[in-house]
Write a structure and sequence with these properties.
Layout: H1 3-20, H2 38-57, H3 67-85, H4 102-118
Length: 119
């Protein structure tokens, strides 16, 4: 797990938020890497590693997944990190896919595809 991988994840998140968020996103959603809390940096690197490992162990067959499947994978990996770092997270932080806003679903799919293409 490296900081650079976490930064790739974070930059893909910011790009997705700027592309898909309706209106002006909250400052925390687009805060630069250097202003991101430590737990979030560690989590970004961990989820990057999970996505990359999934792509590699599938032999690249993840290209056959739908965008929704890719986004769901990112969302579940991120929820695992939330539970790791917060004993009692707000329900919105661990919302199931169907309860997530569309902009977040699209952003998660973008993150997967960014890492998938770079793996």
């Amino acid at each position: 797990m490296s900081v650079d991988q976490g930064r790739v994840f974070r930059e893909a998140w910011i790009a997705g938020v700027r592309k898909h968020y309706p209106g002006e996103p909250k400052a925390g959603y687009v805060a630069p890497w250097d202003e991101t809390p430590d737990w979030e940096r560690v989590s970004a690197a961990a989820v990057y590693d999970q996505i990359r490992a999934f792509v590699e162990t599938s032999g690249g067959a993840t290209s056959k997944l739908t965008r929704e499947q890719k986004g769901r994978f990112v969302a579940l990996c991120w929820i695992g990190q939330i539970f790791k770092h917060f004993p009692d997270p707000k329900p919105s932080y661990v919302a199931d896919w169907d309860d997530m806003p569309g902009w977040q679903q699209e952003t998660d799919a973008d993150i997967f595809e960014t890492i998938e293409q770079g793996a």
